[in-house]
């Protein structure tokens, strides 16, 4: 087994009066709150535990659709047929979320997208999957491939709708990462998430994410529910001076889902102040590289690395940089290789990913021999 490299940093030293640590409790079984700009995790509760995604899996469907459009393989004006499979599995007779699409009709991609987002239309999601990939099973392969590309490490998708399947699962952290990807990489389509309603086939349906109409800055993204998983939501808000992304899941009712989501996103916006810790490009620490052309690589954040401290609580903080090390060359510039963990009185208060500041290629025979001696002396490798 490789050892874990842990570097302890003297991050900041603030002296303050006695302060009661700001806590947050949620009835959600799974939850995470992240800062959109940096990806910093502000709050987490079982964020890496597998859970049934329900209709929140449709965010991955949308990511594939938007990626197809962005790369010129699909247009908003393209039209797809409503197959019998889509009509039966996701239509009005399915007793689930539906667009009420008519069998054998043709529907524009843009209308299908709006239905998936606003109405959570299962039929619309299946029509998109079949139109793009020919079948849902092939489309699921595309979902998993893109999921891997954008850094989802604890999720697996088997269909476009989120309908129950024992082989499909996600984590709250992955859903937050996915939401960040959708907002950042496809800004031209984000406005769909805040549309209040949609009418199709003479039936008007409100946006299932009712938080968008509560005036608290929420403008996305997706709700979900099944009997087994409970109620969940992926939420984004630009209230305050920054955008936050929250995920809550495993709740017992729509009312509880709305309340716990509202509480988490509001708490994140109001209870913290932003403190710049490391400007963009600052090397925060270094990580050992075994047999590389350089013995170590600098670690930087994605842009500026900021801390989010409970208001009025500027106290002494400690941080650790954690990575599985030593790293093996080649290490590519921009590759995520470590994590910054910030503690307050031995309590983990936030994490942020760290990336290689430069590329480190494979070293020459002398470098490898030197590192081999370190291996014997320090027990780097088995």
From TrEMBL:
One of its GO terms (molecular function) is carboxypeptidase activity. Pfam families: PBP5_C (PF07943), Peptidase_S11 (PF00768). InterPro entries: Beta-lactam/transpept-like, Peniciliin-bd_prot_C_sf, Peptidase_S11, Peptidase_S11_C, Peptidase_S11_C_sf, Peptidase_S11_N. PANTHER family: D-ALANYL-D-ALANINE CARBOXYPEPTIDASE, TRAFFICKING PROTEIN PARTICLE COMPLEX SUBUNIT 12. Its EC number is 3.4.16.4. Belongs to the peptidase S11 family. Removes C-terminal D-alanyl residues from sugar-peptide cell wall precursors. SMART domains: PBP5_C. It comes from the Bacteria. SUPFAM superfamilies: beta-lactamase/transpeptidase-like, Penicillin-binding protein associated domain. Keywords: Carboxypeptidase, Cell shape, Cell wall biogenesis/degradation, Hydrolase, Peptidoglycan synthesis, Protease, Signal. This is serine-type D-Ala-D-Ala carboxypeptidase. It catalyses: Preferential cleavage: (Ac)2-L-Lys-D-Ala-|-D-Ala. Also transpeptidation of peptidyl-alanyl moieties that are N-acyl substituents of D-alanine. Residues 1-20 form the signal peptide. Residues 272-362 form the Peptidase S11 D-Ala-D-Ala carboxypeptidase A C-terminal domain. Pathway: Cell wall biogenesis; peptidoglycan biosynthesis. Gene3D superfamilies: D-Ala-D-Ala carboxypeptidase, C-terminal domain, DD-peptidase/beta-lactamase superfamily. It is an enzyme of class 3 (hydrolase).
